[in-house]
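Data deposition worksheet. Section B asks for the primary sequence of the deposited chain exactly as it was used as input, without tags or linkers unless they were present during the calculation. Section C holds the resulting structure in token form. Section D is free text for depositor observations; keep each observation to a single sentence. Incomplete worksheets are returned to the depositor.
Section A, Depositor: J.P.
Section B:
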Amino acid sequence: MNSKIRLIIEREFTERVRKKSFIIVTILTPFLLVLCMFGPMLLIGLSSDSAKTQKVAVVDNSQGQYVGTRLESDDKVEFSLLPSGTSTEEAHMRYARHEDFYGVLVIGEDILNNPGDMMLINHGTTSMGTEEIIRNRIQGILRNERLSRYENDNIDQILADANIRVNIRTMEVDTKTKNGDGIKASSTGASYGLGLILAMVIYMIIIVYGQQVLQSVIDEKQTRVLDVIITSCKPFELMMGKVLGIALVAFLQILIWGVLILVFSTIITPLVLGNMGIDLSSATQAMSASGSPEFAGIVSKITDLSYLSKLFISMLLYIVGGFLFYASMYAAIGSAVDTPQDAAQFNSVLMIPIMIAIYAMIAVMQNPSSDMAFWFSIIPFTSPVVMMARIPFGIPTWEIVVSIAVLYISFVIMIWLAARIFRVGVFMHGKKPTWKDLGDWIRMK
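Section C:
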């Protein structure tokens, strides 16, 4: 590598890696991702465990009070059926304002034929969870009451037998077995989630670090630092040094994240489960054979070192290729303008293929093997995002190889075009360029 390019790479790399913000974001991001995944479930669990039992006074105006007498209390909601003849006003004054009561449930006379003939009065402390429990209990009572009209003594047994939940055990070919004829638990949901996360990570890397390349060139052009640096190296060397230096920063950050995730998935998780007396392989097989095949597939994927390694290597290749492809364009735009405001018109055009990639990714994940998915995975403007959304679904290796080859060949072509803009734009000051100007600079000898 050219010594001047190496010096510029070292400058761009060390300048960013030494910042406290880089260190903090690199270390905290994996933990924040885990917190975002499991935090809501933990908070919901803590909320439900710590919530006190809600007391609800019931005024049942239905004939025979068949609804109120069938409302069963539990540790979440406690129903208190008020004496027959209690008026809504009396219940409101005595219970709806009482601090020990959540409120008053008033059931209308025609509740069976008109399920909306019901009212819940409280003193402002509304709870969606409590209201959902009340709604489900009453719906069950009314359903059973209507079914009892059919005069079938076995109606409860018929309903129990008809209430069937189908669990599909998703399996995939296990290439590790002899002759590749084995199968192992899989999970479409896990593949979908992994694909979405990986694609969004690449999207954010391209946007965040691409903007850093753009801003770095603009800042140094505004302060005339580029005018000084350009006397010691060629414009192409300067552009390549900046692009590769910032690419190394992104590469290092993803490398650290990947190592932390691999350690957590393949070492810490089995150790924790082992200390709890759970054998991971046996538990996965048991879950797959029972009613939890989806969960078994998820565990199988997130603890498979070879599967995660393939994802990680593919991600690094697409991050580097995708970033270099777009960063060369960002560098060219930064050299052609003097302010971020001038760069807006060009930046908005660059965002179009990136946004198309996001929309295509959402459609492609519904059918990862479609023709549309294949072509969006080959086109270099969209392939980094779309292909990373497809890889967790187990697409053929040759498609990945072709996609990566096209991406890196396109980067070489794009860096050549960007360098021709950069060599002219870096010396231009005070004029806002147009698309025609950029085309003229590319053709200029």
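Section D:
Strands lie at 54-60, 77-81, 103-107, 118-122, 171-174, 182-185.
The longest strand covers residues 54-60.
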